[in-house]
Hints:
By secondary structure, the protein is an all-alpha fold. It is built from ten helices and no strands.
Amino acid sequence: MSGGAPTADFGAGALSRAAALIHTLVTVEALLLLAAAPGLVGLFLLGPDPAALPLAAVCLLPLGPALSAALYALHHRGHDLTDLHPARTYARGWRLNALAALKLWTPLLAWLTVIAFTLTHFSATGLPGWWAGALGAIGAGSLLWGAHALVLTSLFTFRARDTARLAAYFLVRHLRATLGAASLLLLVAATTALLTEALPALLAAPLLLSLLHSSRPVIAETRKDFTA
């Protein structure tokens, strides 16, 4: 009606933005599970046998590119319900970042597998007990480094060694972001131990969105100081 107050365009309101977020999360979650499905099925078939840890690491290889593509899609998500393309954005993120993610994800998995295998067979190593605590701390630090590296490799184009250095730098440079990643890892560990290992997989998209939120200082500094 002419002469009245202008009305907001469809898709611009709070309810529409919430619906857009939910649609994006559900779509990204489904695509992440689909991309990682071969490895997840293999993990289910292997079971919890510690002797199968090397095979479990191989099964987890597809998860790295899947997580990277999900972070890319969530970071570039649309806020307008009338203009959403999360599946297209996820596919673009996978295409752009799969190889770069694997270059960091593969050695991280190998390193964590060595630590986990040592801890599960610790009595056979003959090492003093404090070594177990040290290995656990090293493994936790490696996971936190991996969280920063995953965010960086998903949103920026750096050489693998430069991404690795930046991830290590941000571990202490932005302690709040590191603590945010640590809280998410603790949540994943707790839900896996107390409920079911399937729950973190089913909640991967909102967990990754939380990781992006806590990583905003890392993303902002990288964009400002380390990109042209």
